[in-house]
Amino acid sequence: MTLNSPFKVLLKDVTTQLDDKGVLLVRVVHMWIVPDKGNSSEPYMIDMVLMDEEGTRIQATIENTHVSTFKGKIKEHGLYGMMRFEVRANNGDYRPTSHPFRLYFKESTKIKERDLSSETEFPKDLYTLKSFTEIKNTHRRAGDDLFDTIGKFKFDNIKYSLQPDGLPRAAEFILEDLDKNQLSCTLWGEYAQALRNMPSTSAEPHIMLLQLCRAKTDYGEVILANSFYYTKVIVDESIPEIEDFHTKLVASSQSSSSANSTGFFIDPALVKSMSELLAISKRSRCWIFGKITNILNRRAWSYQGCVKESCSKKASAHGDKFKCSKCNEVFDQGIHRYKITVIVKDSSGSVTLCLWDHECRQLLHKTAGQLREQLNLSGIHETATSKEIDDLVGLHLLFRVDISEEDFKKSDKVFSVRCLTQNDDLMNQFLAKTNDEQQVDLESDDDLEIFFSQPGVTSSNNIDDATTTTPMSKRSLLDYEEGHDGGSSTQNSTSKLQKTIKVEKP
């Protein structure tokens, strides 16, 4: 490389001294247009949030004098190589990113579109979702950075306040997360009008993702709101974040009526047996059904994690404090989170699964911190096993497992559970998909009883007689071809509404 050759620059290294030869490889996470006040049909400014391969984000702005040069040349969610920017301090309230600097396009700025599929290591996550608890704890003053969040709501419960011309001035409603935490939300102006114009054609509740929203405090209550023109409102779209929320929402409901009201559907092609799960050799998503037969970490069932609820990483000692291994936050005391490793069996074999904090709270109905405190009050060491955890053994559950490239490299084959449910209606969905005439008694704890219940198997002492019979399998977990690489089912996605609110002008 010669002295004047272009070179790659990461966003974390961007300062006011950014060299014109420095190339930024970035994805456009979000882009919005600020209209001209004198002529709302014309863009006054184009803004965007860029993300690099490390997930670092920075705001970039095309000011009015350069809009005509770059308008139409950059697409939201596209991947680009960019160079030659003016860099200024990122000042002001309600910033879209926490980066200390902000990029401004110049007449000499160069951009070149890249093929996103060729950048296999580039992050696919477009949203950095904050939990409601984190929002309540950290967003209590005006001017905080903007953020993304997600929750469920009902169109029937939206309260509109109107302007003299009859158009909505504001839309007020409640958003609720998976842990039943609630936040009030107010969408103003054209956002309220767009929400009112959305057709509510599917069953309540609906799922809303707010990208780059803000929080304000009103009489001590934290309220979510849009921020012109930054905020995007996404309702019931088939994107991974909404589909994941939808799946967990249904899984947390233990009544069949709740499952039916959400129109939940499990694609049969995603149903796997334990043996099929172990044989998967590509990035996949699947559901498995089995019984917890053992807990491998009865005395090490929790860890001290980051104080940010959106970050699940472990915290390590840092002097007399603790430090997050991912976001480098330093704090006095971490949040205790569950991590329970279990053996799960079906008739085809067994696998080792890791149950993380959300799923454990769903089963145990208390946080790891509450369980530790309960043990301490009972005079039991907080790291000892507990009856609640021991009682997980014997449960029959549906588990959703997302298999990543990293899982293929592991020798121990411990799969992380992303969602689970005991819902009878959903478990019957699994059993209803089978033509197996030989149903295994799920309540039986005796594998020998299952074995000897098979036709042709007797209580013979002849080893040869016993070993010539093929062990029975549950065909509901075996009879499906590998057909998906982790995407959602067509039936599920087509039942959802395609709705997005972005307030901007062409």
From TrEMBL:
Residues 24-113 form the Replication protein A 70 kDa DNA-binding subunit B/D first OB fold domain. Gene3D superfamilies: Nucleic acid-binding proteins (2.40.50.140). GO terms for molecular function: DNA binding; zinc ion binding. Residues 476-485 have a biased composition (Basic and acidic residues). Residues 454-506 are annotated as: Disordered. Pfam families: DUF223 (PF02721), Rep_fac-A_C (PF08646). Keywords: DNA-binding, Metal-binding, Zinc, Zinc-finger. Residues 295-414 form the Replication factor A C-terminal domain. SUPFAM superfamilies: Nucleic acid-binding proteins (SSF50249). This is Replication factor A C-terminal domain-containing protein. Belongs to the replication factor A protein 1 family. CDD domains: RPA1_DBD_A_like, RPA1_DBD_B_like, RPA1_DBD_C. The keyword Secreted does not apply. Residues 455-473, 487-498 have a biased composition (Polar residues).
